[in-house]
Amino acid sequence: MSGGESISWQQANFNFLMAAIASIRQQINRYIAFLEDKRKRWDEQQLEATFAQLNEAKEQMPSASALEHLYQTFNLEPFEIELLLLCVAMELDPTFAQLCADAQKNDNLNYPTFSLALAVLPEANWEAISSTGSLRYWHLIEVQPGPTLLTSPLTLDENIFLYLMGLSFIDRRLGEIIKPLPTEERFAPSHRHLAQQLAATWIEGQEQKQYPLLQLSGDNLAAKQAIAAKTAEKLDLRLARLSVSTLPSNPERLDLIVRLWDREAILLGKGLLIECDRLTEDSDTSQTEALSYFLENSASFLILSSRERGLLTERPMITFDVEKPTQSEQEQLWKMLFSEIDLDLKGLANEIVFQFNMNYPNIYATWTETLGKLSQTETETFTVKEVAQILWDTCRLQARQKLDDLVQRIEPKAGWGDLVLPETQKQILEEIALEVRQRAKVYQDWGFNQKSERGLGISALFTGSSGTGKTLAAEILAKELCLDLYRIDLSTVINKYIGETEKNLRRVFDAAEAGGAILLFDEADALFGKRTETKDSHDRYANIEVSYLLQKMEAYRGLAILTTNIPEALDRAFKRRLRFIVQFPFPDFAQRVEIWQKMFPPQMPQADLDIQKLAQLNVSGGEIRNIALKAAFLASEKGRAVKMTDLLQAARSEYRKLEKTLTSDEIKDWLS
């Protein structure tokens, strides 16, 4: 090849590898000749010629060959390199099997062995073939089953062979649990700055010969993935991700995974994000033990993603808290996206950001979905109000998060006209809706949030007996404000174990924070009933739970509502920390008349129903609904319109359920 010509690294690397194999072949030929006639002198010029060809091939390399990088990375001795090449030759030279058999004078030993290497190769040493030697420790070669260690077949690890050929694929044993993580360019400036901090921390640790474990804590997994990927990019590493739930519990399998990963990381310049976001103190101990083993035995660049700070590991760890992008960053991104359409939506950005706390990927996804919905409508032009409504509803859908068995989402259908309450209570409910609507302007535009970050949420207590409209009022507020409504049964949240109640409450508030949903804590008596004088440790922790709930309600950016049937359980400390208290009275006769009038759908067939007589029943609005519904089923079964007789039968059934006595005054003249 003339000096002016150049070849690719891939071709030059292959040429160099084949030249290296030729030198191994010549050494085996020399050994075979010696065995055949120990007195015959081997022509050393043939061997020197192969070494000359090897040097020439090395000079043709534009940069270091894969073989050179391999032995430099793992600090291999010359004997170890040539032993490795024995196995490479077996893969690339179809005649090499016979050569091995001839050298070992056994047709059954037609493969490389430690015995062959020790006999043929110079500078042979026994340490290289031990399980702690680099070749076997890093699984560069594998010892297959055989009669003895020295005569067992030696094979080249599949991925090492591909690497030496200039190819790069993740090991199939790792590929089952470790996946690539692409770099996300669309993330907040504050997160970009955090990535710079992580990279600087790792570099500083390397300079001090320390390799700290970096941890990203918080519930924003997408942001943590983006930060980790950007950190790796700054360190010129390729990042992969591993879910802790996929780590094997078998010790041998786990040790293999750790070694294979470290080999991959060292050889190919990779880092790993270990996602432990679902790992809790209650998780299977095998998971925590597997994670601890991985963290303490891996020498690679690791970033740990978890909801909580700290995990069981002896390795030094530096933790960074990851929050959602700031309100300012979210607002700027929304304004940039709004510029894509010919409408002035800048004023909407502030309202969206104050209500919905989203990361960048969610914001992009929400806007893309909104544009998709707009393109599917028949209208070619939209008003600001129409786009705002579609965007708002899409934000609600994007912000919804699953809360397992702790919450129930209620689809609000009722409106103000369905609520029967005294005017005073209605005014308080309207004030609640007003404050939620105007929060962005008052807190942000008018600067009240600069005074204090506490108390920006709105907390309310609805008191009254069952069926008086507390849940209905929450539904009406949700529909009026176009917000999701979640009902939380506190009896399922409260846990007898210390600290578990607070943990459950935090899960609820954190998950709801993204969409500013309305949280309805039903039957708060389950918690308030525990508020007692501090006589023992149980009382003290019960009181802590109550205080924790009220603190979270104050800090929550949305509307949080507590309901209770026992208002006397509250003390002044509670009332002081609640923004609104709405008392739902038992309906009087006039209110019951109005409730009955609203109860029957217009399409329901009815026969001479007397609302005034029905209102004589001393029942709540919820009980009125039960009676009306039961009567409708009775009439439907008989194939006729609803009559007073059906309502009487339904009333008697409801009273029996309530363990009440239906008096003659309540049903006086019903059937006359």
| DSSP strand content | 5-15%
Question: Main β-sheet: number of strands, strand sense, barrel status?
Answer: 6 strands, mixed
Low-confidence stretches: none
Q: How many helical stretches? A: 28
Mean pLDDT: 86
Basic shape: elongated
Report the count of strand segments: 14
Determine Rg (CA atoms, Å): 37 Å
Give the helix/strand class. Answer: alpha/beta
Helical content band: 40-55%
Distance between the termini: 117 Å
Strand line-up of the largest beta sheet: 3-5-6-7-4-8
Secondary-structure topology with pairs:
Layout lengths: L8 H28 L7 H16 L6 H8 L4 H15 L3 H9 L9 H7 L13 H4 L3 E3 L10 E3 L1 H7 L7 H4 L2 E3 L8 H19 L5 E5 L3 H14 L3 E6 L7 H18 L1 E6 L9 H13 L3 E6 L10 E5 L5 H12 L7 H10 L4 H17 L7 H16 L7 E4 L12 H23 L12 E6 L6 H12 L3 E5 H4 L6 H14 L4 E5 L2 H4 L8 H19 L3 E6 L7 H6 L2 E4 L5 H11 L11 H4 L6 H18 L5 H15 L14
Parallel strand pairs: 4-7, 4-8, 5-6, 6-7, 10-13, 10-14, 11-12, 12-13
Antiparallel strand pairs: 1-2, 3-5, 9-11
Helix pairs in contact: 1-2, 1-4, 1-5, 10-11, 12-13, 14-15, 14-16, 15-18, 16-17, 18-19, 21-23, 25-27, 27-28
